[in-house]
Structure formats: C-alpha cells, structure tokens
Design a protein that fits this description.
Layout: E1 12-14, E2 17-19, E3 23-25, E4 31-33, H1 36-41, H2 46-59, E5 61-65, H3 70-87, E6 103-105, H4 117-120, H5 123-133, E7 138-147, E8 171-177, E9 189-190, H6 200-203, H7 214-223, E10 236-240, E11 245-246, E12 256-264, E13 274-277, H8 281-284, E14 294-297, E15 309-310, E16 320-323, E17 326-328, H9 330-335
Parallel strand pairs: 4-5, 13-14
Antiparallel strand pairs: 1-2, 3-4, 5-10, 6-7, 7-12, 8-10, 8-12, 9-11, 15-16, 16-17
InterPro entries: Fungal_Metabolite_Diox (IPR051961), Phytyl_CoA_dOase-like (IPR008775)
Protein name: Phytanoyl-CoA dioxygenase
Pfam families: PhyH (PF05721)
Length: about 350
Amino acid sequence: MSPTNTLTSAGAYSEGAYAPKVDQRGDGPVTIRLTDQERISGVTRLETVQQCLYHYHRDGFVVLENAIDDDTVDALYKKIVEDTGVYVGKKFQQWNQGEATRNVSVVPPLTPEWLRREFYANVHTMRVIENILGPKPELRFINSNVAMPGATGRQAVHSDVNHDFPTIPFGIVVNTYLQDSDEQNGVTEVWAGTHNAYGRDEQQSSKESGWIKKEYIQKQAKIKAPLQPRLRKGSICLRDLRLWHAGMPNRSEQHRIMLAIDYFAAWYQCPMRLTLPAAARAEIENWNISTAGVDWAEGEVDYLNQPFYLNMTQDPGMYIKQTEKGVEDWRARVTGVYEFDKAIATEQNWWTPEA
C-alpha cells in the first residue's frame, strides 16, 4: 500500500461518522487540493483518501490538485509538444473522431529519464486507486491526448468501453493535465454519475463505438448537466472507464496535453500490454504496482513509431490497432477490410439544451 498516516487532524464526528475537512471545490466533478505537506512528504492524509473515494464512487470522476510540482510538469509538456510535431503526419497516425477535432493520441517519452513516478504512479493517486481496484493495480496503458490549436469540431459523448463490461469498478484512466485547462483550450467534457447509471445496450448507440444515444444524453442532462471543469496545471483526474465524456475543441494558440494512464484490477485480467525499456525496470518495479502487463525491451523503445493500440476488454482477440491501411479491429481481422475511422460527430451525438 502507498504511504498514509493514521491520524486525523480536522473534521468532526456526527452520529458515529467522521466528516473530513479537506480543501475541495466544485460539485460533480470535485477537485481536492493536497496540502503542501502531503505533496512534499508523499504521505496522503486519511481525510483526503476518504473524500476522494466518496466523490469517485458518486461521480465516477475526481480530481487531485497540487500532487506534482510545476517545474516537473512544464518539462514534460515541452517535450510532448516537440514530439507531437514529429508524430503528426506519420502514415499510421489518425485523428480522434476526425481531423476537425485536431485531437490526437501521442505516446509520451518512454525513456528512463522521463518515466517518472510523479506522473505514472503518483503516490497520492495510487493510494486512492488501490482502495478502488484492490492492491497492486495493473499498469496496462501509457499514452497522452493532445488537443492541438485550430480545432473546429468536438467529439461525440462516449464511453471508452463498449464491450460487455462489469457493473463494478474494474479500470481507471488517470489523466494528468500538463497546463492550466478550461473551456478555452479544450478541457474534457465530463458527465458525472454516468459510470453506473445505465447498462451498455441501453445507453450506447453502437457496440463498435461506445457513442451514447441522443435520447439518453438529453435525459441525463436533466439529472446532471455535463461540465468542463477548470483545472490547474498538474491536476490529476481519476476517471472510471465507463464514464461518459467528450473531447472538446482547443480554441487557444497552445497545445492542450493530458496524460492517459490506464490501471486495471488484477481480477479483471486485462490482456492489454505495453512495452517499456528494461533500463527502467528496477525503478518502475519499486513503484508498488503490478507490472504483469509490461514487456521489458532491451535498448531504446521507439515510442514515436508505435501505432495506437488498445484493448480494454477481457478478450485477447478484441484489440484494436492503427495501421497504415486503416484500423485493425475484430471486423478487419475477419473480413480483411481495413478502414480509417470516418465517424464524425453531429448534434445527434452531444447535448443540445432544450428551450
């Protein structure tokens, strides 16, 4: 387990329950700010853990602020901006839901100097995750999402999982924002509480996309409207993989970058794997996480020539991969027909407020 203390220093008791006192703001999603003492010491107060768990289970989403120092964040931001210029235009590169979104997945630098625990297994983040998924959660996916300037389109409201997923928490994506983010530069639209509100077949318009039916979008907005939270640089967002969300256009002049790190419960037996350099193995295996999903490569990992690969299911045969011919998914493997993703979101795929 990650470091924690056993003392409570604030809050009050009511009818046998303890009500923690933490620095938090917002309501669905909620941002909880770590104290400087927590960040510097690496020790998470139990009050912080309790509040994170409460809001995560309620909303399917919670934000930790002040978990990483600014200089560390700035350095990685600059590196990924440089790498994005190299990656965009490769034959296998594809835009997420069309070029109008200017939204692209770029693998962050997978070298020992850049594989820092603050980003990939932050002690405060892991303290919360291991209380949701169980001990030694499995690291299975490392990527980043870059919203480039000049976007004219947005994504459809969707869930990242469109298979027959469990009705209990099984996977969490950790999104760390590398710059201050809000509506102007395309912070993600979040639909708090949708992680366990509806069944897959009930809510999703297609088993191939995870896009949400218009009628359910309109219905859910009356219960809890979507929100683009204002996030400070270095904020770490924990999102249930079942939660509805949507990438939004970046109308600023700078790249909006967030890391995307996936952890899964061991019992889920996710078959997805990632490759990391063997030179970083000793350090990473000291992070108190499971590396059952990691393949260790001798020498450098050519991370900018890795096509996008994903499999959040429990079936090894259900992976998807970008290729120069198009998307390789289970349909392409059966028919031999590869197609690039041509799906474009319209008003039928997002919330339109009713008069």
